[in-house]
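ESCALATION

Customer reports they have been waiting on this structure for their group meeting. Please prioritize. Original submission:
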Amino acid sequence: MNNILVPIGTSPNSKETLQYATDFAASFGAKVFVMDVFSVSSAAGSLANVKEKVAKSSKEYIKEVIDGVDTKNVELKIATYNGDIIDGLNDINKELGIDLIIIAPRSNDIQEELYLGNTTGRIVKRTDIPTLIVPKGTQFKPMGNILAAFGSGILKRNRILNPLMAIKDKFRSKINLLLVKRPGYSEEDLQVNTALLDISEQLMITEQGTTYLGVLEHFQKQQPDLLCVFRRKRGFFKKLWEKNTIPKSEFFVPIPVLVLSVKK
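Update from on-call: job pushed to the front of the queue and completed.
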């Protein structure tokens, strides 16, 4: 866990998210790249200097956010990008090798409809970079108890588990696996990857309409500090795959969620 990226938007909670990311990075001795994205077209001659001015303003805003954070001797670097956020994330990942993105959901307020808004939803669903979703106001603490929930135990590459294994090794976490038999599951789905079994304490099996319902069934008993799920077309966000936003009515947990990307 060397490079952590934190996309900063205009949310008033940006400082809280960056503080969590900084505290998390301090445990690993990782660098934090604070990213802001803007979109300026330079097609018109009169806009020749606009991009430069907006980039400068963006950097000044990020510096203000960083100034409000206790850096814990973590190296924080600024990364700005002109264009689409997904393109920016992929470009930065190619250049630097990002191990983890840390973002906040749209809101914790149960009165608000969305758990993930359009931008955060696109980051989770349309990149292959592991992402940690941290609820507003969450203070960093070691993740001693982890619940990893999935509807299929198939993993083509063990390195997909690297972020989860890094967290386990650093905090000596206990990982409990929850395999959810969903409608239409295959026998192949029940064959759990041996690397996943090797890092876990126990494997629980349940039968529910969705993986999320399985999580709800076991959440109170397990009381995890972290929920780990997998991003794949038959995975945790299956119902919402075509949409970027995720309603709270279909998903909401009050703890950090680690989303690992799997291409099947």
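Sent to customer with the following note: The chain has a mean pLDDT of 81.
Escalation resolved.
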